[in-house]
Amino acid sequence: MTLIASGIAIAVAVMLATMFPVLWDSVLLFTRIIVAVSTTFVQFIARGCAAKFPNWSLRFELLHSVIRVCTETYGERMATERHAQWIRAQSDVLGSLLGWFSCRRFNRSLDVVHFNGLEHVWLRNKQPRPKRLVVLYLHGGGFSVLSPRLYTSLGAELAATIERDLKQRSGRDLNVDVMLGLLRQTATRWYCFPSREGLAPSQIILAGDSAGGGLVMSTLLRVRDSKPEQLLLAAMLIAPAVDLSSDEPDAPHCFLSRAMCKAFSAAYHPNYSDPSTWEDASSAQCDLRGLPPVFLQLGRLDFIFQHGDRLASKANADGVTNWELDVHDDMPHVFSIFPSFVLPYAHVGVQKLSTFAAKSFLKGEDRDTRDARAN
């Protein structure tokens, strides 16, 4: 597994190092990556072959070191359209490859659907059942990069884990499908899509990580204010980007860089330096009352940890009582999305998400049953 993870790290390095038109830029980045990987190995051996943190693995350390060097060296370039297109294309290929194995492992089919001129991905159980539940997932990537296919492995594992939890809690076999939505438009642009599938709000949980988590919050706030009857059952946020104040403290053990995050914020919200323009793009400063239950998962080593921390504090200040906060002390940004063969602890994060989702789905069913009897 270490060799496989090392191969993925090298593939990521080559992918990023070859996207620059100037040869010297590529040489510099690749050299820094080699130094970082070598240093990681040496430090691992010096610690007595122990990982940097108790819940890390050598495989994750290697990949983490590669990503960190890339974001620190040329992270701000990733927000430009030319570089974003390149990274999206490469992440599409990598996600398709890893996702193929995950779909086989978790008995999922991958179906492509086009909506609003964009490609979205359905991950469905290969054995359809009468009752269908859905996780509508908005992926991360700084509002401009990464492909939804990169999240195929996470989606397949999450769906299978929720199905297992539902079986244990209710004794029934229920279908859980995951829709991986493309990020380049706000979720409200295609919020009506679930109704085309014959799905009721009580059958759907809205989820997202990083920038996608920020879009989840923006979506919830806009739907609450315009069509509250269409609010979905619940929401799950993984390290959401929800604060445009850009005053994050240094985070030496996270692969995000300050320059990259500022570039993404500027690309997403050009006037982000003016708080009067933020509105729901910075939901940590919004009124959070009247939203469905929210599960908020954070890693304390995350560069944008304070985004989620401030969001939770604002919810508490607003008197919100239906949120759950899940903090992991030695985890960096979006740790749950990494393949478990790279970071075994990622499954802990997925299981936490699954437990919340299963409980929410069953509560929604109970409420629908009571409403049907009352009518």
How would you describe this structure in keywords?
2 domains, 10 helices, 8-stranded mixed sheet, 46% helix, Rossmann fold
Brief rundown of the structure:
Pfam families: Abhydrolase_3 (PF07859). Helices cover 46% and strands 14% of the residues.
Please give the order of strands in the largest beta sheet.
1-2-4-3-5-6-7-8
The domain tally reads: 2
Strand elements, count? 8
Strand content: 5-15%
CATH topology of the largest domain: Rossmann fold
Name the CATH architecture of the largest domain. 3-Layer(aba) Sandwich
Oligomerization state? single chain
> How far is the first residue's CA from the last residue's CA?
56 Å
* Low-pLDDT ranges: none
The profile of the biggest β sheet is: 8 strands, mixed
Provide the CATH superfamily of the largest domain. Answer: Alpha/Beta hydrolase fold, catalytic domain
Written as H for each helix and E for each strand, in order along the chain, the element string is HHHHEEEHEHEHEHEHEH
Give the fraction of residues assigned to helices. 40-55%
Kindly name the structural category: alpha/beta
Shape: globular
Work out the radius of gyration.
Answer: 20 Å
Number of helices: 10
- Top CATH class of the largest domain: Alpha Beta
The pLDDT mean sits at 88
GO molecular function: hydrolase activity
Organism: Phytophthora rubi
Family: Belongs to the 'GDXG' lipolytic enzyme family.
Protein name: Alpha/beta hydrolase fold-3 domain-containing protein
